Amino acid sequence: MKNYIKVKETNKHIKLLIVIPCYNEEESIGSLLQSLQSLSLPNVSITALPVNDCSKDNTLSVIRKHTSTYLNLPVNLGIGGAVQSGYKYAYKNKFDIAIQLDGDGQHPISEIQNLLQPILNNEADVVIGSRFITKQGFQSSTLRRTGIKYFKNLNRLLLGITITDSTSGFRALNLKALEIVNDYYPDEYPEPEAIVLYHLNNLKIIEAPVVMHERQGGQSSIRSFGSIYYMMKVTLGILFIYLRLKLNGKRNTL
After folding, report:
1. What distance in Å separates the CA atoms of residue 39 and residue 44, rounded to the nearest whole number?
2. What are the Cα distances from residue 89, in Å, to 43, 50, 121?
3. Cα distance between residue 141 and residue 199, in whole Å
4. Mean pLDDT, to the nearest integer, of 24-42?
5. Which of 160, 190, 197, 246 sits in a 20 to 30 Å window from 184, CA-based?
6. Which tens digit of pLDDT belongs to each residue from 141-189?
7. How far are the Cα atoms of 33, 40, 41, 105 from residue 6, in angstroms, in the given order?
8. Is pLDDT of 232 > 90?
9. Full DSSP string of 151-191
10. CA 69 to chain centroid
């Protein structure tokens, strides 16, 4: 049975790419791809693009069982490189919108409508799914919530905007945003840094309430380093991209 969800009708036919970065996701990627095959939206053609980031398990084999459309990276680029590979594919193949979601089952496809609608309504260039607006579903660990609040305050200080879930990897980008990330995208722990990139390139960012689940399999991108290292690395990355864009003004100078 098709999974029809309620997205407001649009007169234009929309090409939507679902970018799914995958690293050791063999336990969850198959069921996710099956679910996406049943997803149907009015006037929207949907293509799922898993990006295998040189997984060490059977992720690639599982992907090949479910789709012939995928990217298989020859070396491990990390989450930033995997996501940008998908975004580049979207831009070069003239997709109108790309939605990034995790391959570990955290992001239910039933929530895609909440990310898509503000772009279809021309209300935003970038939509970030936030679990902290309605505070329903999986809320993450106390330690990670503390880090997310830190980045929220850092964004307020630098940019004057409030993003409640800056580490969320559940995001939608329109063509204007895809053109920017096609040129440059942060290479490691990219989500908080990308907010600075979007804002200082005058993209309109909004958050949409979503319900997230616990990870069904795979590994976090923060898998090889401690939380303190993560916080320091991302803070330096945010300050670096902020200063470069403020001093030079354009993304092409990065």
Report:
1. 10
2. 21, 11, 24
3. 28
4. 93
5. 160
6. 777 788 888 999 999 999 999 999 999 999 999 999 999 999 999 987 8
7. 20, 10, 8, 21
8. no
9. HHHHHHHHHS---TTTT---EEEEHHHHHHHHH---SSSHH
10. 19
